[in-house]
Automatic annotation (TrEMBL):
<dbReference type="InterPro" id="IPR013986">
    <property type="entry name" value="DExx_box_DNA_helicase_dom_sf"/>
</dbReference>
<dbReference type="GO" id="GO:0003677">
    <property type="term" value="F:DNA binding"/>
</dbReference>
<keyword id="KW-0547">Nucleotide-binding</keyword>
<dbReference type="Pfam" id="PF00580">
    <property type="entry name" value="UvrD-helicase"/>
</dbReference>
<dbReference type="InterPro" id="IPR000212">
    <property type="entry name" value="DNA_helicase_UvrD/REP"/>
</dbReference>
<dbReference type="GO" id="GO:0016787">
    <property type="term" value="F:hydrolase activity"/>
</dbReference>
<comment type="similarity">
    <text>Belongs to the helicase family. UvrD subfamily.</text>
</comment>
<dbReference type="Pfam" id="PF13361">
    <property type="entry name" value="UvrD_C"/>
</dbReference>
<keyword id="KW-0413">Isomerase</keyword>
<protein>
    <recommendedName>
        <fullName>DNA 3'-5' helicase</fullName>
        <ecNumber>5.6.2.4</ecNumber>
    </recommendedName>
</protein>
<dbReference type="GO" id="GO:0000725">
    <property type="term" value="P:recombinational repair"/>
</dbReference>
<dbReference type="GO" id="GO:0005524">
    <property type="term" value="F:ATP binding"/>
</dbReference>
<dbReference type="InterPro" id="IPR027417">
    <property type="entry name" value="P-loop_NTPase"/>
</dbReference>
<dbReference type="InterPro" id="IPR014016">
    <property type="entry name" value="UvrD-like_ATP-bd"/>
</dbReference>
<keyword id="KW-0378">Hydrolase</keyword>
<keyword id="KW-0067">ATP-binding</keyword>
<keyword id="KW-0347">Helicase</keyword>
Length: 697
């Protein structure tokens, strides 16, 4: 029986085909996969660059190009095009096996041959060449073959390399890109460690190469698998993983493990595939969790799309962490009455007034969360000895006694009233789970790990037994948008030696990413493991427009420009549903929506972070933008005194450390908002601009 592979690039092309053509492709390939002698349905191509390319008839007008092995029965569909274009495609390209990775590669040989003479002439008069600092032997060790090596030696500028991305073999272009960006051969080797091998590969064994090429070829067994692929042609993350991502997904860990990486590097994709992997191969149910209901809903939809087998899907339980805590709590208690944020603030303030202590309600609330709850402090004596690293404001023994009295009064008031906070529900759920010998889950997978608090981490630690592969987490502390700080070691989760990093951004253009990274320049950000996190090395291989950044004298003028910008995007063919507008406050959301409505641009408010409205511009706060992406994004109102708002920043005289943390969190929030843009980013303000924006803008 023939086994059929679908090339990743073709799935993107398939999604753009007319529905009638898509149906013809599906019918043809279904029949192809059902026959025992698939080669009989393929035709040789006269003057094909690669003799292993064959054509398959889709209709009178359409042809597919298939890579057929010299031996074996695995065939790979590379493209479907109109008749003449398909044959022209085959006459320009060839397939090969990468010597370092053993994976299949497709290259436009004719484009290389056409470009090389001109590049060589330019190189003759250039003072230096792009890869003068790299030896041939080093390039060959990294998988650069003879033709690409000759091409690389003629390059004098990185722009020439950028232009070659469309026709050079993908892995080889990645290697050259890394070297051109300043990486040493050793660093490139380390970055591509999951791809490069010392093992020798047979350059003529296409069957084996295709089997190894899960980063670009999905192999299907029969019509049902084929149809499952074609049902979601744009959701390529379901079936294709970059080898570095796949290595993290498929590894066996002797305890908790972590994946880090900048925005758009595929951390969420990795967590979903990891949960799937554990559900298929593991020995118990999987809890997949994150910090908000909106993100949990998004994860749930992703799992439904990824996991075809209903039995496997039932073993993956997706809940946001407070929802899980509430569920455990309700197994032993009546449904809780939860004190709102405003009611908590009022309670703290009443205690401050009654005891006449020299501390603000906000300071005391944070001391309770970040010291008392985080360290499980249960008495005045324990509090006197508790670590207060990062709290900034020093407290003597007398002051600690005063603080403890207010905290004791707050907790006593909660008990007297029979009310709870989300934190105390989490603490109680953790206590209940720690008493159980049988844990509810065998595995825990956490996305957006940087925004969970210490009490939430203790809950998740108690949810699964301490065994190999027990906890898998993904996050980026540069994207922390809530005031939660944690040392994973202190909550019983040790990831040292079991941590990997993703560096390639798959969402944002290099220009948008570089500008956004500038917002964080000079910031020292913790890594949740008692060290510092570095964002150096995060890169995008997609080129585009530089962000549009401009100030205006008044809010009216800024909003008028916003309308003009949105209309320009829509006029170029970008659907309203592919556009987002991010602002700092709910009040400004209302203002923007009203202005767009007045000018006839359809819009919808992001109340829960997502929307089913496909024909409207999405307008939401920067917090609501977390986890989303848009082809084009406008970040509006990045104005002095508004980004950051004074209400979000602890006064420096009250607590200098908290002031620094709050300021950094707000800066990270702007960074998160800007990196939601895939292709175009517009940033604006009126009056004085935010201190977070680069001075040159």
């Amino acid at each position: 029986m023939a086994r059929l592979g679908i090339d990743k690039d073709f799935l993107h092309e398939f999604a753009k085909l007319e529905k009638q053509v898509q149906e013809r492709v599906s019918q043809t390939l279904t029949k192809f996969g059902q026959v025992s002698h698939a080669g009989a349905h393929l035709e040789k191509i006269a003057n094909a660059r690669d003799s292993r390319f064959r054509s398959i008839r889709i209709s009178d007008f359409w042809r597919g190009i298939v890579l057929a092995p010299d031996s074996g029965d695995s065939y790979t569909l590379l493209t479907v095009l109109p008749h003449d274009e398909a044959y022209a495609w085959a006459k320009r390209r060839s397939a090969s096996v990468n010597a370092a990775t053993g994976r299949i590669e497709i290259r436009d040989v004719a484009a290389v041959e056409d470009s090389l003479p001109g590049l060589s002439r330019l190189a003759e008069t250039a003072p230096s060449r792009l890869f003068d600092h790299v030896k041939d032997s080093q390039l060959q060790q990294l998988g650069i073959d003879e033709q690409t090596l000759a091409f690389a030696r003629a390059l004098t500028d990185s722009a020439q390399l950028d232009a070659a991305k469309s026709f050079l073999p993908g892995n080889q272009w990645d290697v050259l890109f890394g070297l051109a960006a300043g990486y040493t051969p050793e660093q490139v080797w380390a970055e591509l460690a999951a791809e490069i091998s010392d093992t020798g590969f047979d350059p003529d064994d296409l069957d084996a190469a295709v089997e190894r090429s899960s980063d670009r070829v999905v192999l299907v067994d029969g019509p049902e698998e084929l149809m499952a692929v074609f049902r979601h042609p744009l959701a390529t993350w379901r079936i294709y993983l970059h080898p570095v991502q796949r290595s993290a997904v498929e590894a066996s860990y002797n305890g908790p493990a972590r994946v880090t990486g900048g925005p758009g590097t595929g951390k969420t994709v990795v967590t979903m595939h990891r949960a799937h992997q554990l559900a298929v191969n593991g020995s118990g149910p999987v809890l997949m969790t994150t910090f908000t209901a909106t993100l949990a809903e998004s994860l749930g939809k992703g799992v439904e799309l990824l996991v075809e087998d209903p039995e496997v899907r039932e073993r993956i339980h997706v809940h946001h962490v407070d929802q899980f805590a509430n569920r455990v709590f309700r197994e032993h208690h009546e449904p809780p009455t939860i004190l709102s944020t405003g009611e908590q603030r009022q309670l703290w303030q009443s205690i401050v007034t009654e005891l006449d202590v020299p501390f603000s309600a906000n300071f005391l609330a944070e001391e309770w969360r970040q010291v008392v709850l985080a360290q499980r402090v249960g008495s005045a004596e324990q509090y006197l000895g508790a670590k207060r690293d990062g709290r900034g404001r020093g407290l003597g023994s007398r002051q600690r006694a005063q603080v403890w009295q207010t905290i004791w009064e707050f907790e006593s008031a909660l008990r007297r009233r029979g009310v709870w906070t989300h934190e105390t529900i989490c603490v109680e759920a953790t206590r209940l789970l720690e008493q159980r010998t049988e844990k509810p889950y065998r595995y825990v997978v956490v996305d957006e790990a940087q925004d969970l608090s210490p009490v939430q981490w203790r809950l998740l630690r108690a949810a699964a037994p301490e065994r190999p592969d027990d906890i898998f987490l993904a996050g980026d502390t540069h994207q922390r948008i809530y005031n939660n700080r944690v040392s994973l070691r202190e909550v019983g989760i040790r990831v040292t030696g079991r941590s990997s990093r993703l560096n390639v951004n798959y969402r944002t253009t290099a220009e948008i990413l570089a500008w956004s990274l500038g917002l964080l320049r000079g910031e020292t950000i913790d890594d949740m493991d008692e060290g510092l996190e570095a964002i150096a090395g995060c890169r995008s291989e997609v080129r585009g427009r530089y962000p549009w950044v401009r100030g205006f004298p008044t809010r009216t003028a800024e909003l008028e420009q916003l309308v003009t910008t949105l209309r320009e995007w829509i006029d170029t063919g970008i659907a309203p549903g592919e556009i987002g507008v991010a602002v700092r406050s709910n009040k400004l959301v209302e203002t923007v929506v009203a202005e767009l409505g007045r000018t006839g641009i359809p819009s919808v408010k992001l109340l829960g972070g997502t929307t089913d409205e496909e024909e409207a511009v999405a307008v939401g706060t920067m917090h609501r933008m977390k986890g989303l992406e848009f082809r084009c994004l406008a970040v509006v109102g990045v104005t002095e005194h508004h980004v950051p708002p004074a209400s979000a920043i602890t006064p420096v005289e009250e607590d200098a450390s908290a002031h620094r943390r709050d300021t950094q969190r707000e800066r990270c929030l702007l960074f998160v908002a800007c990196t939601r843009a895939r292709e175009q980013l517009a940033v604006s303000w009126h009056g004085g601009k935010s201190p977070f924006l680069p001075t040159q803008d």
